[in-house]
Write a structure and sequence with these properties.
Elements: E1 3-8, E2 17-19, H1 22-30, E3 35-38, H2 51-57, H3 59-69, E4 73-79, H4 86-92, E5 97-98, E6 103-118, E7 121-128, E8 131-135, E9 140-144, E10 150-157, E11 166-167
Antiparallel strand pairs: 1-2, 1-7, 3-8, 4-10, 5-11, 6-7, 6-8, 6-9, 6-10
Bound molecules: the ligand CSCCC(=O)/C(O)=C/O, fe (ii) ion and nickel (II) ion.
Fe (ii) ion binds at residues 97, 99, 103, 141, 143, 165.
Length: 185
């Protein structure tokens, strides 16, 4: 089940509100310019599937997004709990950073947790299969896949070079809840 928790950015102990209805989540996130939509994860894909398999299965959706929104590059992160580099991969996204382009991710399987830091609040979003999230460029955020990652996400980039991040050097991510391993992992 997808979930949004909103915190004051100085009070990680207790959320101000918790939302599990997709329309509520989309509504709360739209207020701060974040896109959150449900797409049909039409092709059954298991975490651990190769990038080529995932892109082939979702070619039509990817082509449509690329044509409509001008994305220049696409890749796939596909991880299951026995991945030998899971700890390093988890660490890569775990500190607060920004991108100079929108962060657009479509979860075709499993789950992952995005946490956004904006306007004095922290928005912790558990994304699940079928969720598409679009985080505006320049938004401070981090991402957790838990110690036992289980997800497949398609990433779309306007930058031809793919994933480039600017780390803020802030330690806020250490104070907010990490993702707990997902029930389906
Ligand atoms: C779910 S995609 C992997 C994370 C990523 O690309 C990113 O930039 C996280 O902030
Ligand atoms: Fe990011
Ligand atoms: Ni769930």
């Amino acid at each position: 089940m997808s979930r949004l928790r909103i915190f004051n950015d100085t009070q990680p102990q207790a959320p101000l509100s918790v939302h599990t209805d997709h329309a509520d989540i989309a509504h709360e996130l739209a207020k701060v310019g974040v896109r959150f939509e449900q797409w049909e994860a039409s092709q059954p894909i298991a975490p651990g599937a190769s990038q080529d398999e995932v892109i082939a299965a979702y070619r039509a959706d990817i082509d449509r997004l690329m044509a409509e929104e001008g994305y220049q590059a696409v890749d796939v992160i596909s991880l299951k709990p026995d991945h030998p580099d899971r700890a390093t991969l988890r660490q890569k996204f775990l500190s607060e950073h920004t991108h100079s382009e929108d962060e657009v991710r479509f979860f075709v399987a499993g789950a992952g947790q995005f946490t956004l830091h904006l306007e004095g609040k922290v928005y912790d979003i558990l994304c699940e299969q079928g969720d598409l999230i679009g985080v505006p460029d320049g938004t401070r955020h981090w991402f957790d896949m838990s110690e036992s990652p289980y997800f497949v996400a398609i990433r779309l980039f306007t930058n031809k070079d793919g994933w480039v991040a600017q780390f803020t050097g802030e330690d806020i991510a250490e104070r907010f809840p990490r993702m707990t391993p997902h029930a389906t992992a």
